[in-house]
Design a protein that fits this description.
Elements lengths: L18 H26 L1 H6 L28 E5 L33 E5 L9 H7 L4 E6 L1 H14 L6 E2 L10 E4 L4 E7 L4 E7 L8 E9 L1 H4 L7 E4 L9 E5 L2 E6 L10 H18 L7 E5 L32 H23 L3 E5 L2 H5 L34 H19 L1
Parallel strand pairs: 3-6, 3-9, 8-10, 9-12, 12-13
Antiparallel strand pairs: 1-2, 4-5, 5-6, 7-8, 10-11
Helix pairs in contact: 6-7
Family: Belongs to the PC-esterase family. TBL subfamily.
GO cellular component, one term: membrane
Subcellular location: Membrane
């Protein structure tokens, strides 16, 4: 809300009969300024306000009331635009060994480099570039778990590269399984770990091919995936994510019985759509966290990062060849992406309320709008050499390193700083 200066005639020549009016206006102005900090967040959360314009809005969404805890002081850091940043990148594919080969776009011949020279600019404030020294001081003696799919692992590898200006971690993994890695920063006694759980709940592959040759998965929607739920109680921070694996064919189980599926093409099994499984999976994942007896940490839900396939879906020739970000006026969250995002927000709000009653904190790491605007940030075909005899689709899901996913660390550090300020003043 913008306030304009009101020029009041308060000089020595002010007529006496105007004093009551002046006093009234002064009191009114003070009241308006007092109310503004309380009401401002309700009007600044543009990710939610924009959703009101969509007809696909789920009936259970109640507008801007009781919004999740996503604000950093009086600025919504998740609403903004990408602006040029000639100082980027802050590491390269030659200085960081943690880059996954399939996201090593520069190494594999991506001809343009402008995609790495942008930063996120919130509409109403500045978002500082990630400071690795500051981050490691904040998380000193603590631990952070990345729980979800390979985009979550993509995020952790980005953070390792950003932190490499200070220190390299050592491998302290309990297993040789690459899906469950642990890294420790000795000088700061800080540990990062990744837990592979693309469906968040207990899952079993029923058919390696399935109707679309991408597998058919049995999802036990009311059962915890103990590969991660039994391991995270010791962590101080959990970053939870999930999304892209729910596009594949799935059979849904509840109470040990089939209740439906998503594109399973099985006789007498109703198609409940991917959204049914997505909602139930997040509900169960949040329930698992809230049921931990000794967990006292903070859970961040990292919201869905849309893919950018054009001219076809991912396994039918789709590609992502753009070289510049969108402006926010050039695209919008809609269709499937909007529905997945809304489901996350709704389930998050439920979990946040339940967690609050147990003294647990939930925070929304809302990357959706920023990443919607980055069709230029994906590996596409630059995740392997052109002459390699491999079967790989154009990758418009993961993110090049360095690249726009590095901004997630900007978001996270700012949230950690503000959480520290709130804790110190509460």
């Amino acid at each position: 809300m913008k306030f304009h200066d009101i020029e009041l005639p308060l000089g020595s020549t002010t007529p006496k009969h105007m004093i009551p009016k002046v006093t009234f206006l002064a009191i009114l102005a003070l009241l308006l300024f007092a109310i503004t900090p309380v009401s401002y967040p309700l009007f600044s959360y543009s990710s939610l306000l924009k959703i009101n314009k969509y007809k696909q809005q789920p009936s259970s969404y109640d507008g801007s009331n009781n919004l999740p805890s996503t604000y950093v002081e009086k600025c919504d850091i998740f609403s903004g635009e990408w602006v040029p940043n000639p100082k980027a990148p802050y590491y390269t594919n030659k200085t960081c060994w943690a880059i996954h080969e399939h996201q090593n776009c520069i190494k594999y011949g991506r001809p343009d480099s402008e995609f790495i020279k942008w930063r996120w600019k919130p509409n109403d404030c500045e978002l500082p570039i990630f400071n690795p020294f500051q981050f490691l001081e904040i998380v000193k003696g603590k631990s952070m778990a990345f729980v979800g799919d390979s985009v979550g692992r993509n995020q952790m590898q980005s953070m390792i590269c950003l932190l490499s200006r200070v220190e390299w971690p050592i491998d302290v993994s309990y297993t040789n399984d690459e899906y469950f890695k642990r890294w420790k920063y000795p000088s700061y006694n800080f540990t990062m770990a990744t837990f592979w759980t693309p469906h968040l709940v207990r899952t079993k592959m029923a058919d390696s091919n399935g109707p679309t040759n991408t597998g058919l998965f049995n999802l036990y929607l009311d059962e915890f995936d103990d590969k991660w739920t039994t391991q995270i109680e010791e962590f101080d921070y959990i970053i939870l994510d999930g999304g892209h694996w729910f596009f594949r064919p799935m059979v849904f189980y509840e109470k040990k019985k089939i209740v439906g599926c998503h594109f399973c093409l099985l006789e007498d099994v109703p198609d409940l759509t991917m959204f049914y499984g997505y909602r139930k999976a997040f509900r169960t994942a949040f329930k698992a966290i809230n049921s931990l007896e000794n967990f006292k940490g903070v859970t961040f839900l990292r919201t869905f990062a849309p893919s950018h396939f054009e001219n076809g879906i991912w396994n039918q020739g789709g590609n992502c060849l753009r070289t510049k970000p969108f402006r926010s006026s050039e695209t919008s969250l809609e269709g499937t992406n909007l529905e997945l995002y809304m489901i996350q927000l709704e389930e998050f709000k439920i979990a946040e309320k339940e967690g609050r009653n147990k003294g647990l904190k939930f925070k929304l790491l809302d990357t959706t709008q920023a990443m919607l605007l980055r069709p230029d940030g994906h590996p596409s075909r630059y995740g392997h050499w052109p002459h390699e005899n491999v079967t790989l689709y154009n990758d418009c899901v993961h993110w090049c390193l360095p690249g726009p996913i590095d901004t997630w660390s900007d978001f996270l550090l700012e949230m950690l700083k503000m959480e520290g300020i709130r804790s110190a003043t509460s």
